Amino acid sequence: MAVYHCSVKVFSRSNGACAVAKAAYRAGQELRDDLTNRTHDYTDKPGVIDTMILAPDSAPEWAKDRERLWNAVQAAEKRVDAREAREVRVALPVELTAGQQKQLVRCFVMDQFVGAGMVADVAIHEAHVENPTPTSCSRLAASAPRVSARRSGSGTAVNY
After folding, report:
1. pLDDT tens figures, 79-136
2. Does 137 reside within a domain?
3. How far apart are alpha carbons 65 and 50 in whole angstroms?
4. Domain count within the chain
5. Does residue 1 belong to any structural domain of this protein?
6. 149 in a domain, yes or no?
7. Which of 16, 19, 87, 135 could disulfide-link 9, Cβ–Cβ 3.0 to 4.6 Å?
């Protein structure tokens, strides 16, 4: 039987969150943070099955580049207590194949986040066998602001 789990968090600078670092961790990648001039390297992180960035048709092409996306979101936020993104963690039904899980996540994200104008950065992680009820999970971060192709001086605009 499927085990239900869903948790939602907000990334906020006031509690030390860094959107670029969190994106690197979720995706198991190396990303450079333009704000702090640091590189966050999680390429050795095990368990990342798949990653994808889903964006509205109106989003600029750079929004599909993880490093550029999260650096643009951070740059658009000026306040020290800025809420840069929302993180949603959802357990995936073990009864589904990996392909079915991916399709379920894609449909959910397109309907709930991309349809509202947000860009969603999704990572599917494998089940941890040491858990009493091992399930794969999807972790997604959705941009708090809407991302659009409107140009600013830097060429990367993030609108609310």
Report:
1. 777 777 888 888 888 888 889 999 999 999 999 989 988 899 999 988 765 554 555 7
2. yes
3. 15
4. 1
5. no
6. yes
7. 87
